[in-house]
Each structure stands twice: as C-alpha cells, then as structure tokens.
Amino acid sequence: MSAGKKLRLGVNIDHVATVRNARGGAYPDPLRAAKLAEEAGADGITAHLREDRRHISDADIDGLMEVLTVPLNFEMAATEEMQRIALRHKPHAVCIVPEKREERTTEGGLEVAREENRLAHYLAPLRAAGCRVSIFIAADKRQIDAAHRIGAEVIELHTGAYCDAHAEGHFEARDRELEGLREMSAYAHSLGLEVHAGHGLNYETVKPVAAFPEVMELNIGHFLIGEAIFRGLQSAISEMRRLMDEARDG
Fold it and tell me: Cα separation of 90 and 145, whole Å?
C-alpha cells in the first residue's frame, strides 16, 4: 500500500435524516442527498445506523444499498443487532464506532485495547462476508496497535479534538492535536493499515489533515449538510473536494 494517492471524500448523510425526522414524513430524502453527493464528486457515502434510530433508519440503509453506485460505509456500534444488519446487506465497508444513547454525536474513539478479544471475534464474520472493516479510534498508538491485532484493515482517526481546539482559538492545543494525528497516521500506515480521518472537519480545518500523505479518505458530514443550507449540497461538496485536492497536490 503506497501513500500519496488521490484523497477520497466520503460524505456522511446522517443529518439530512436528522432534518427529516424533526418534522416526520419523508422530506428531505437522504437517498436524494446521497445521489447529489455522488454527482458532486463524493467517492463514497457514510451513514450511521444508531441503535436508537435517531436519524438514519433501516429503510434508508435498504435504499442506499439499492441506489448507490459508490461504496457505502456503514457506521455501526459493535452490537449483535448491527452485526446481523451488516451481514444481511454486506456493504463495501463497516466502520465500528462507539455509541452512547445520551451523546449528541460520536464522542471520542472506540476503546479497542480494553475489548480486544470481544472485538476480534465480533469482526471475524464481517470480514468473512467481504466487508472492509474500519475502526474509529483516537490518534493513540495503543489503540492503533490493538486495531491492527484484531484484524481491522482500516482505521479512521478521530479529528474532533483538533477541530474543537481550532474553533475555540486554542491554537497551541490545536497544533499538538494535529501533530499527534500526523504521527499516528504515519505509524498506522507503517503497520499496513489504511488510514482514514474524520469528525468536525470544515473548510478551515480540512487542509492540514488532507495534506498527510498516509491518509486515504476523509469522512465529512455535519459541516457539509449545514453549509448546504446556504450554498447547496453540490456546491458545498465541490468546495470541500477542491480544498482537499489543493492540500494533497500542494
């Protein structure tokens, strides 16, 4: 696996479903958003089917599997129910994420090192079914080593602390977080893991992460759906694609 290839953009459509569910009914349709994202240059679509179904629904996953021509990255908690759903659909990729019912969004990375044995057994049938298995983790060597040992092919590094520090004007902390992401991207790549990153990225924060040659994919959702209110979804995605390409080419 070589670093430096074209950086892929995965667009998370969860919060189109959030808007739909705030009112009930079928509008706005996450499947329509997914197709628009494809047209705008998204290399994949990410959707998180949460245990409480607060945004994406089972029917959304059914529909995405039918209509997408780009890969679906199915985010899920490590539960028996989600494993059954993933094995039924066999999406291109599954990303195992931590999940607490009281959180607004995914907070922090998965604790792999403490649950290594359970997760290794949990992932085995997903890998056997042909799904690429990704683990959403903090930029921490201990967690990366554990993800590697349990058979994950991909890790997605949590960029939330870096983005939060930037938004709050804590620039020394931001730079420390960015350096940690840089170092752990290189370390994970050296183990043979494919490196993805995401959470909280926007137009201001994306380029430093996109410039890491070991990072192969960024998954971005909430910001793009919010920006779409002002400039349209395709325009919002196209601008993110431009910034990512500029960072990688530069």
Answer: 26
In the residue annotation, 48 being an active-site residue is answered as yes
Query: Residues 38, 199, 217, 227: which is the catalytic one?
Result: 199
Candidates 15, 38, 48, 217; catalytic one: 48
pTM score: 0.93
Report the mean per-residue pLDDT for the chain: 93
pLDDT in tens, 156-182: 999 999 999 999 999 999 999 999 999
Domain enclosing residue 216, as ranges: 8-249
| Amino acid occupying residue 112 | V
Catalytic annotation on 214?
Answer: no
Q: Is 137 part of a structural domain of the chain?
A: yes
Phi, psi (5° rounding) for residue 99? Answer: -150, 125
String of DSSP letters for the chain: --S-SPPEEEEE-HHHHHHHHHH-SS-S-HHHHHHHHHHHT-SEEEEE--TT-SSS-HHHHHHHHHH-SS-EEEEE-S-HHHHHHHHHH--SEEEE----TT-SS--S----GGGHHHHHHHHHHHHHTTPEEEEEE-S-HHHHHHHHHTT-SEEEEE-HHHHHHHHTT-HHHHHHHHHHHHHHHHHHHHTT-EEEEESS--TTTHHHHHT-TTEEEEEE-HHHHHHHHHH-HHHHHHHHHHHHHHHHH-
Say which of 15, 38, 75, 217 is annotated catalytic. 75
Cβ-contact 64, 90 below 8 angstroms: no
CATH number at 192 reads 3.20.20.70
| Number of domains comprising the chain | 1
* Catalytic status, residue 15: no
